[in-house]
Amino acid sequence: MPLDQSFTGRTYPPTEPYQVGREKIREFATAIGAADALHHDVEAAQKAGYRDVVAPPTFPIILSFAAMEQIVTDPELGMDYTRVVHGDQRFSYRRPIVAGDELVVVSSIDDITHRGGHDFLTTRAELATPAGEPVVTVVCKLVVRGHGE
Amino acid sequence: MSEMAFEKGQQLPLQTFRVTRADLVRYAGASGDFNPIHWSERTAVGVGLPGVIAHGMYTMALAGRAVTGWVGSADAVLDIGVRFTRPVPVPDTDEGTEVEFTAVIKNVSEDDLVTFDLTATCAGEKVLAQARVVVKQI
Fold it and tell me: What's the structural domain count of chain A?
Protein backbone atom coordinates (compact mmCIF):
# COMPACT_ATOMS: atom_id res chain seq x y z
CA MET A 1 0.00 0.00 0.00
CA PRO A 2 1.45 3.43 -0.89
CA LEU A 3 2.48 5.71 1.95
CA ASP A 4 -0.18 8.15 3.10
CA GLN A 5 0.67 11.44 1.37
CA SER A 6 -1.15 13.39 4.08
CA PHE A 7 1.97 12.86 6.25
CA THR A 8 3.69 15.52 4.13
CA GLY A 9 4.45 18.48 6.38
CA ARG A 10 4.46 16.44 9.58
CA THR A 11 7.08 17.53 12.11
CA TYR A 12 8.26 15.27 14.93
CA PRO A 13 9.18 16.33 18.48
CA PRO A 14 12.76 17.55 19.05
CA THR A 15 15.32 15.00 20.22
CA GLU A 16 17.22 15.26 23.48
CA PRO A 17 20.37 17.38 22.98
CA TYR A 18 23.25 15.38 21.45
CA GLN A 19 26.65 16.12 22.99
CA VAL A 20 29.25 16.37 20.22
CA GLY A 21 32.31 14.71 21.73
CA ARG A 22 35.92 15.37 20.80
CA GLU A 23 36.68 11.65 20.71
CA LYS A 24 33.58 10.97 18.59
CA ILE A 25 34.76 13.49 16.00
CA ARG A 26 38.22 11.88 16.03
CA GLU A 27 36.70 8.40 15.74
CA PHE A 28 34.44 9.40 12.83
CA ALA A 29 37.27 11.25 11.05
CA THR A 30 39.53 8.20 11.47
CA ALA A 31 36.80 5.91 10.13
CA ILE A 32 36.54 7.92 6.89
CA GLY A 33 40.31 8.36 6.63
CA ALA A 34 40.19 12.12 7.22
CA ALA A 35 43.59 12.85 8.72
CA ASP A 36 43.47 16.67 8.68
CA ALA A 37 44.63 18.20 11.96
CA LEU A 38 41.41 20.23 12.27
CA HIS A 39 39.56 16.98 13.07
CA HIS A 40 42.12 15.64 15.53
CA ASP A 41 44.32 18.32 17.06
CA VAL A 42 42.69 20.80 19.46
CA GLU A 43 45.58 23.23 19.14
CA ALA A 44 45.37 23.23 15.33
CA ALA A 45 41.60 23.79 15.51
CA GLN A 46 42.04 26.67 17.96
CA LYS A 47 44.69 28.24 15.73
CA ALA A 48 42.09 28.17 12.94
CA GLY A 49 39.64 30.03 15.18
CA TYR A 50 37.57 27.15 16.58
CA ARG A 51 36.88 26.29 20.19
CA ASP A 52 37.73 22.62 19.63
CA VAL A 53 38.17 20.01 16.87
CA VAL A 54 35.93 20.36 13.79
CA ALA A 55 33.62 17.59 12.52
CA PRO A 56 33.90 16.33 8.92
CA PRO A 57 31.05 17.41 6.58
CA THR A 58 29.03 14.18 6.79
CA PHE A 59 29.34 13.82 10.59
CA PRO A 60 25.72 14.96 11.25
CA ILE A 61 24.45 11.72 9.70
CA ILE A 62 25.03 10.22 13.16
CA LEU A 63 22.35 12.51 14.59
CA SER A 64 19.98 12.66 11.64
CA PHE A 65 20.07 8.88 11.14
CA ALA A 66 19.13 8.32 14.78
CA ALA A 67 16.43 10.99 14.65
CA MET A 68 14.95 9.48 11.49
CA GLU A 69 13.97 6.47 13.60
CA GLN A 70 10.96 8.54 14.64
CA ILE A 71 9.78 8.58 11.05
CA VAL A 72 10.67 5.09 9.86
CA THR A 73 9.17 3.49 12.97
CA ASP A 74 6.08 5.73 13.08
CA PRO A 75 3.35 3.07 13.26
CA GLU A 76 0.81 5.42 11.67
CA LEU A 77 3.07 5.97 8.65
CA GLY A 78 3.82 2.25 8.44
CA MET A 79 7.05 2.18 6.41
CA ASP A 80 8.56 -1.21 5.59
CA TYR A 81 12.18 -0.38 6.45
CA THR A 82 13.49 -3.59 4.90
CA ARG A 83 12.50 -2.15 1.50
CA VAL A 84 14.09 1.26 2.02
CA VAL A 85 16.91 2.43 -0.23
CA HIS A 86 18.90 5.60 0.40
CA GLY A 87 18.26 7.88 -2.57
CA ASP A 88 19.74 11.33 -1.95
CA GLN A 89 21.56 12.99 0.91
CA ARG A 90 22.49 16.60 1.50
CA PHE A 91 24.02 18.69 4.29
CA SER A 92 23.69 22.48 4.25
CA TYR A 93 25.75 24.31 6.85
CA ARG A 94 25.41 27.61 8.66
CA ARG A 95 28.67 26.90 10.46
CA PRO A 96 30.91 23.88 11.11
CA ILE A 97 30.13 21.56 14.02
CA VAL A 98 32.81 21.56 16.73
CA ALA A 99 33.38 19.38 19.78
CA GLY A 100 31.42 20.67 22.74
CA ASP A 101 28.39 21.59 20.64
CA GLU A 102 25.01 20.45 21.88
CA LEU A 103 22.59 19.79 19.05
CA VAL A 104 18.85 19.19 19.01
CA VAL A 105 17.28 17.55 15.96
CA VAL A 106 13.83 18.31 14.63
CA SER A 107 12.76 15.92 11.86
CA SER A 108 10.06 16.59 9.31
CA ILE A 109 8.54 14.94 6.29
CA ASP A 110 8.83 17.40 3.41
CA ASP A 111 7.36 15.30 0.64
CA ILE A 112 5.84 11.92 -0.14
CA THR A 113 5.25 10.87 -3.73
CA HIS A 114 4.30 7.58 -5.28
CA ARG A 115 5.38 6.69 -8.79
CA GLY A 116 6.35 3.62 -10.73
CA GLY A 117 5.15 1.44 -7.87
CA HIS A 118 7.60 2.99 -5.39
CA ASP A 119 7.26 5.56 -2.62
CA PHE A 120 9.64 8.54 -2.47
CA LEU A 121 9.96 10.15 0.94
CA THR A 122 11.89 13.38 1.55
CA THR A 123 12.87 13.93 5.16
CA ARG A 124 14.53 17.01 6.63
CA ALA A 125 16.40 17.25 9.91
CA GLU A 126 17.14 20.68 11.33
CA LEU A 127 20.10 20.57 13.72
CA ALA A 128 20.26 23.52 16.09
CA THR A 129 21.66 24.40 19.49
CA PRO A 130 19.27 24.17 22.45
CA ALA A 131 19.19 27.99 22.35
CA GLY A 132 17.84 27.77 18.80
CA GLU A 133 20.92 28.68 16.73
CA PRO A 134 20.55 26.78 13.42
CA VAL A 135 23.71 24.84 12.52
CA VAL A 136 23.01 22.41 9.68
CA THR A 137 20.06 21.22 7.61
CA VAL A 138 20.12 17.54 6.61
CA VAL A 139 17.87 16.41 3.76
CA CYS A 140 17.50 12.72 3.06
CA LYS A 141 15.44 11.17 0.28
CA LEU A 142 14.40 7.58 0.77
CA VAL A 143 12.92 5.19 -1.76
CA VAL A 144 10.57 2.51 -0.46
CA ARG A 145 10.60 -0.16 -3.12
CA GLY A 146 7.20 -1.49 -4.08
CA HIS A 147 6.36 -5.16 -4.19
CA GLY A 148 5.48 -5.16 -7.89
CA GLU A 149 9.02 -5.47 -9.30
CA MET B 1 45.42 26.34 3.95
CA SER B 2 45.37 26.68 0.23
CA GLU B 3 45.71 29.95 -1.62
CA MET B 4 44.50 28.22 -4.77
CA ALA B 5 42.02 30.25 -6.78
CA PHE B 6 39.51 28.11 -8.65
CA GLU B 7 38.10 29.06 -12.04
CA LYS B 8 34.86 28.05 -13.68
CA GLY B 9 35.38 25.04 -15.94
CA GLN B 10 38.58 23.96 -14.18
CA GLN B 11 39.15 20.19 -14.01
CA LEU B 12 40.37 18.78 -10.73
CA PRO B 13 42.90 15.95 -10.64
CA LEU B 14 41.84 12.36 -9.95
CA GLN B 15 41.79 11.20 -6.34
CA THR B 16 41.53 7.49 -5.55
CA PHE B 17 40.42 5.97 -2.26
CA ARG B 18 40.74 2.29 -1.38
CA VAL B 19 37.80 0.71 0.46
CA THR B 20 38.09 -2.61 2.31
CA ARG B 21 35.72 -4.64 4.47
CA ALA B 22 37.67 -3.45 7.52
CA ASP B 23 36.87 0.15 6.55
CA LEU B 24 33.15 -0.68 6.43
CA VAL B 25 33.22 -2.33 9.85
CA ARG B 26 35.02 0.67 11.29
CA TYR B 27 32.55 3.04 9.61
CA ALA B 28 29.58 1.05 10.92
CA GLY B 29 30.88 1.46 14.45
CA ALA B 30 31.71 5.15 14.11
CA SER B 31 28.45 6.10 12.39
CA GLY B 32 26.00 3.80 14.15
CA ASP B 33 24.77 2.31 10.86
CA PHE B 34 24.93 -1.44 11.50
CA ASN B 35 22.83 -2.55 8.52
CA PRO B 36 24.22 -6.06 7.86
CA ILE B 37 24.33 -5.54 4.07
CA HIS B 38 27.53 -3.59 4.84
CA TRP B 39 29.28 -6.48 6.62
CA SER B 40 27.42 -9.78 6.10
CA GLU B 41 27.80 -11.49 2.71
CA ARG B 42 24.93 -13.81 3.60
CA THR B 43 22.54 -10.92 4.26
CA ALA B 44 23.68 -8.89 1.25
CA VAL B 45 23.26 -11.80 -1.17
CA GLY B 46 19.95 -12.67 0.50
CA VAL B 47 18.46 -9.30 -0.46
CA GLY B 48 19.67 -9.57 -4.04
CA LEU B 49 22.94 -7.61 -3.87
CA PRO B 50 26.10 -8.92 -5.53
CA GLY B 51 27.72 -9.06 -2.08
CA VAL B 52 28.63 -6.71 0.76
CA ILE B 53 28.37 -3.09 -0.36
CA ALA B 54 29.81 0.10 1.12
CA HIS B 55 27.55 2.42 3.09
CA GLY B 56 26.36 5.13 0.71
CA MET B 57 27.35 7.52 3.47
CA TYR B 58 30.89 6.13 3.40
CA THR B 59 31.15 6.96 -0.32
CA MET B 60 29.70 10.40 0.43
CA ALA B 61 32.28 10.92 3.17
CA LEU B 62 34.98 10.11 0.61
CA ALA B 63 33.45 12.74 -1.69
CA GLY B 64 33.88 15.21 1.16
CA ARG B 65 37.50 14.15 1.56
CA ALA B 66 38.11 14.55 -2.16
CA VAL B 67 36.85 18.14 -2.07
CA THR B 68 38.66 19.12 1.11
CA GLY B 69 41.75 17.58 -0.48
CA TRP B 70 41.43 19.73 -3.61
CA VAL B 71 40.65 22.84 -1.57
CA GLY B 72 43.30 22.19 1.07
CA SER B 73 41.16 23.00 4.09
CA ALA B 74 39.02 20.59 6.10
CA ASP B 75 36.42 23.18 7.20
CA ALA B 76 35.57 24.72 3.82
CA VAL B 77 32.45 22.72 2.93
CA LEU B 78 29.20 24.72 3.19
CA ASP B 79 26.95 22.38 1.26
CA ILE B 80 27.36 18.78 0.09
CA GLY B 81 24.71 16.76 -1.71
CA VAL B 82 24.70 13.50 -3.67
CA ARG B 83 22.37 10.96 -5.24
CA PHE B 84 23.27 7.31 -4.74
CA THR B 85 22.90 5.59 -8.10
CA ARG B 86 24.84 2.32 -7.84
CA PRO B 87 26.19 0.32 -4.93
CA VAL B 88 29.94 0.02 -4.30
CA PRO B 89 30.59 -3.72 -3.89
CA VAL B 90 33.51 -4.43 -1.55
CA PRO B 91 35.04 -7.90 -1.98
CA ASP B 92 36.48 -9.75 1.00
CA THR B 93 40.10 -9.28 -0.10
CA ASP B 94 43.05 -7.32 1.22
CA GLU B 95 42.71 -4.97 -1.75
CA GLY B 96 38.95 -4.43 -1.45
CA THR B 97 37.94 -1.94 -4.13
CA GLU B 98 38.67 1.61 -5.19
CA VAL B 99 36.47 4.68 -5.60
CA GLU B 100 37.78 7.39 -7.91
CA PHE B 101 36.79 11.04 -7.84
CA THR B 102 37.20 13.82 -10.34
CA ALA B 103 35.42 17.17 -10.49
CA VAL B 104 34.88 20.24 -12.57
CA ILE B 105 34.29 23.72 -11.18
CA LYS B 106 30.69 24.53 -12.06
CA ASN B 107 30.67 28.06 -10.74
CA VAL B 108 32.62 30.66 -8.77
CA SER B 109 30.34 33.30 -7.28
CA GLU B 110 31.23 36.93 -6.63
CA ASP B 111 31.42 36.20 -2.91
CA ASP B 112 33.93 33.37 -3.54
CA LEU B 113 31.61 30.40 -3.21
CA VAL B 114 32.99 27.64 -5.40
CA THR B 115 30.69 24.88 -6.71
CA PHE B 116 32.26 21.50 -7.54
CA ASP B 117 30.45 18.95 -9.73
CA LEU B 118 31.91 15.58 -8.80
CA THR B 119 32.13 12.32 -10.66
CA ALA B 120 32.57 9.20 -8.53
CA THR B 121 33.30 5.86 -10.14
CA CYS B 122 33.94 2.33 -8.95
CA ALA B 123 35.16 -0.26 -11.47
CA GLY B 124 34.29 2.17 -14.26
CA GLU B 125 30.67 2.67 -13.14
CA LYS B 126 29.31 5.94 -11.82
CA VAL B 127 28.20 5.43 -8.22
CA LEU B 128 26.95 8.97 -7.50
CA ALA B 129 24.90 11.44 -9.51
CA GLN B 130 24.20 15.12 -8.91
CA ALA B 131 27.21 15.15 -6.59
CA ARG B 132 27.68 18.82 -5.85
CA VAL B 133 29.74 20.51 -3.17
CA VAL B 134 29.91 24.22 -2.38
CA VAL B 135 32.94 25.58 -0.54
CA LYS B 136 33.97 28.99 0.62
CA GLN B 137 37.19 29.98 -1.11
CA ILE B 138 39.59 31.57 1.34
Answer: 1
> Which residues in chain A touch residue B57, judged by CB atoms under 8 angstroms apart?
58, 61, 86, 89
Q: What CATH number is given to the structural domain containing A96?
A: 3.10.129.10
How far apart are the CA of B32 and the nearest CA of chain A, in angstroms?
7
Q: Contact A33/B17, CB-based, under 8 Å?
A: yes
Whether A5 is in a domain gets the answer no
Q: How many helices (H) and strands (E) does chain A have?
A: 5, 5
Tell me the H-state helices in chain A.
22-31, 37-40, 42-47, 61-67, 69-72
Q: What is the residue range of B77's domain?
A: 11-136
Does residue B5 fall inside a structural domain?
Answer: no
B117, B135 Cβ separation under 8 angstroms: no
149 residues of chain A, pLDDT tens digit each? 788 899 999 999 999 999 999 999 999 999 999 999 999 999 999 999 999 999 999 999 999 988 888 898 899 998 887 788 899 999 999 999 999 999 999 999 999 999 999 999 999 999 999 999 999 999 999 999 887 64
In a domain, A29, yes or no: no
Asked whether residue B1 is domain-assigned, the answer is: no
* Domain at B95, CATH number: 3.10.129.10
Number of A/B CB contacts below 8 angstroms equals: 97
CA dihedral angle for residue A58, residue A63, residue A66, residue A68, rounded to 10 degrees: -80
